[in-house]
Design a protein that fits this description.
GO terms for molecular function: structural constituent of ribosome. This is Small ribosomal subunit protein bS21. InterPro entries: Ribosomal_bS21, Ribosomal_bS21_sf. Keywords: Ribonucleoprotein, Ribosomal protein. Belongs to the bacterial ribosomal protein bS21 family. The chain is mainly alpha-helical and about 90 residues long. The protein folds into two domains: about 35 residues, no CATH class; about 30 residues. About 55% of the residues lie in helices and about 0% in strands. The longest helix is centred in the middle third of the chain and has 27 residues. It is flat.
Length: about 90
């Protein structure tokens, strides 16, 4: 994993690295490896995750096909109407 540091802005690079690690599941795996997980618990967790994924996929498909209403869309602020502070 690689993150570029622009203009010596380490804070931004750390945020980007954390987001990449979150997406890859590194934090979840570290938490899981802290203690031993019994095989039966592992099967149950993986089964629950699979059910959650399939329900999410089915929900997204139903929204796309118009069978159920999607979440309400947030109004986007108009960039031209917001006044910018004068320096």
């Amino acid at each position: 994993m690689q993150v570029l540091v622009r203009d010596n802005n380490i804070d931004q690079a750390l945020r980007v690295l954390k987001k990449k690690m979150q997406r890859e599941g590194v934090f979840r795996e570290m938490k899981a490896r802290r203690s031993y997980e019994k095989p039966s618990e592992k099967r149950g967790r993986e089964k629950a995750e699979a059910i959650r994924r399939s329900r999410k996929a089915a929900r997204k498909l139903a929204i796309r096909e118009g069978l159920i209403a999607g979440p309400p869309k947030k109004p986007r602020p108009d960039a031209r109407s917001t006044p910018r502070p004068q320096a």
